Amino acid sequence: MILVTGATGNVGRCIVRRMTAAGHQVKALTRNPGAVFDGAEVVVGDLDEQRTLPGCLEGVNKAYVMGMGPRTAEQVATFVHAAAGLRHIVLMSSLSVELERGGVVARWHREAEGAVRKSGIPWTFLRPGVFMSNALQWAASIRAEGVVRSVTGDTPVAPVHPDDIAAVAVTALSSTGHEGRAYALTGPERTSPSAQTRLLGDLLERRLTFEAVPAEAGVRSMTAFGISAEEAEVSVHSAREDNLFGIPLTTIHDLTGLAPRTFRDWAAENLNAFR
Ligand SMILES: NC(=O)c1ccc[n+]([C@@H]2O[C@H](COP(=O)([O-])OP(=O)(O)OC[C@H]3O[C@@H](n4cnc5c(N)ncnc54)[C@H](OP(=O)(O)O)[C@@H]3O)[C@@H](O)[C@H]2O)c1
């Protein structure tokens, strides 16, 4: 039995779908008792509430685990504490941990990886770059004003399809030889936010305007969330550097045999969100 946390999320929901389609028994963890998953058992749990986890973990031998935002490391530590005895954990981490100065997100994920290492449970770390689904943050302003405001400037990235990350997670959870491995995952093409904007405009048959939000505005919005000015500076500038995030890797194909999808593929699948 495999437990999928973040089961209603971009990656988790694809893992549930792929696992159940392959005939695995799956428990889908959510805080929402009304959530419905085809072929999976819904378990209601909250990674901020340790007492909710033992019931979710009954009969489970492997898990996909992810934490959210500033509570990432605490949530992952809470999970592994409750999950002692599991045979394998696949952890959602981030490519930022491989950057020398990855900022606050890198710190959250380094600490989460540390908690999993310390647990003694065999692990695989997924370290994806920018998710294609981040473009959904542009949906409201595209619908209302035909404008994309990019908080990461116009730095090129090699965005990755959430379902391609899910395919790697499923491979790691359902075959051997992935324990103790950390997989850097990016998509197949280098593209910039302004190029993504043009592509969305073409698909929507609408003229879209691209605006790069100044770095200072990004720093201000992070400090408003309680992140220190120093960490916010490093994070915002790291997100605007042309670094590892912009290098297409072959990991997804190497591990799954699947051709990773392009931003165009993702945009065509999700076009209704922008209409
Ligand atoms: N976006 C990127 O470019 C990027 C890049 C690298 C790594 N990452 C990492 O990927 C992860 C996000 O993955 P995603 O996009 O698939 O997630 P997502 O779509 O943002 O979904 C978040 C999920 O977390 C669940 N959740 C939130 N708080 C929870 C809590 N206290 N207890 C239990 N579940 C909780 C929500 O479930 P319910 O509401 O149903 O409970 C939801 O399913 C983060 O760890 C992020 O740092 C993201």
From TrEMBL:
Which InterPro entries does the UniProt record give? Ergot_Alk_Oxidoreductase, NAD(P)-bd_dom, NAD(P)-bd_dom_sf
Record-annotated NAD(P)-binding domain positions: 6-174
Pfam families noted in UniProt: NAD_binding_10
Q: Which SUPFAM superfamilies match?
A: NAD(P)-binding Rossmann-fold domains (SSF51735)
Q: What is this protein called?
A: NAD-dependent epimerase/dehydratase family protein
